[in-house]
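Go through the following before class.
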Amino acid sequence: MAEGTKTLDLRHNQGVTRAILVALLLAASAFAADWTEYRIGPLRVVSNAGDGDARKQLTEMEQLRFVLGGMLGKDPIRREQLEALWPITLVLFDSDKDRAAYALPTPFVEGGSANLSTTPGPAWRSAIAKQLIEANAGTMPPEVETALADLFASIEVKTTRVAIGAPVVGLSPARQREWARLHMLATQPEYAGRFRVYLKNLQGADVSLAAFNTYGIAAPELDKRMNAYAERGGLQSVDVFGEAITPAKEFYERRMPEDEVTSLLAELKAQGKSFPPDSARGLLAQGTQESLYAAASANPKWGAPHARLAALMSSPQARIAPLEKATQLEPRHVEYWEALAHAQMDSKLYIEAAKSWLGAERAAGTEVERVRLRKERAAIEQQRVDAEIAAARAAKDEAERELRRVMAESEARVRAAETKANRENAAQATFTAGQAPVSFQEGFAGTRITGRLIEVQCVDAVLKLDIQLDNSSITTVLVQKNPEQDGKPVFTCGPVSPPRRIEVVHNAKADIRWETVGEVQTYELK
């Protein structure tokens, strides 16, 4: 009886457990089913707090992107829009408890494949603007970039009606002053029309020229006006042209599956300290060649995987291509330009290295950093000059060695010819004891020619040698009697095939009868 009771209790407990699991699964499914993703371009809102707030926040983000794009030179008629290096994601919760559970220490933290936020507000809007500036504009002075981002911290959006420039609460005095100075250029009619030109001039150019190139006044005068405007206070927002948006039509919306929601919430909990291993940032953290290639594929706009790949390369030449890709994708990173310049210098690509150093200077955010880069470039430039001088000296030495080698070979051929001529002369004549043989050139005072013997014309006992000189002309010389060697005639009448090299000394006395330029005194067949 007791045993049966235990069996019933066990079955009862198993049933309860099964019921609890089913309830949990249903609750989790309901929880996941309530989550919706709203997206346009690189902007994204994920929410279980209903459509209204999510669409309102995404509209505000999109209008911020549109207005800032106009200031940075994007043409709305051509549908040009600002891009982001990482998707900008806002997560909205339907309860204060969940918002507190996933609160972040900063407006944004890094996720595996996006930048994540949970709390909209002025700092959040300013951070969005800063991300868009960094992804779409060249480097400007840090105080200008911060002030421009702060200009959008208090953006006011009512569908297509947009206002910027309302006072921002919570800024430090220095940051408040820079915001007020830029407020004049961005909102006052006499300056706002050319504000985008001013920002363009600030990017990677001489800051002192931006005022004159844009407004036709010297930089000190523009500073004076901006300071006076900031000190006046009482600054108000102004209306600007917004984008015609119909959220219900233009926003992409979809229900999110449970696994995506779970992964996203886990990334919020990690607060940028760890990432999913298959995400772009997770793959980069692994640091292997295969994972870095995968990270580059996961986020094709990201320069970091290419720079890390370059660090794995052993030769400077191999590092150049991935570093060039990194600078193309993220030209504001000074360290990428510096690494590329060093690799090019080590590969003796001095012209390319000089361009990379200039790229590093344009990417530098402060004058202190630009001065450091100029000093480093000057030091390496001296190394380049020394290397070029050494290379020129080595080339000159090599040319001199080659000239000496050619002269030595020529001299050796002349000596060999002299030795052969003296040997033949010794066979035909007897020298007085102690008499030194003369050289081939010294033995005859006539004219010397060198070329190819192409034909022997025989007229009775007289021979005419047709010689094609090295300059392609043909000269004919006279031989009174066919010489013999080992009892056989040296020359055979008719064309010589193949032609033979011959060196002849003749008396330079032309003979009209025989149509020759001279009579042979001596010869040497080679």
The longest strand covers residues 447-459. The chain is about 55% helix and 15% strand.
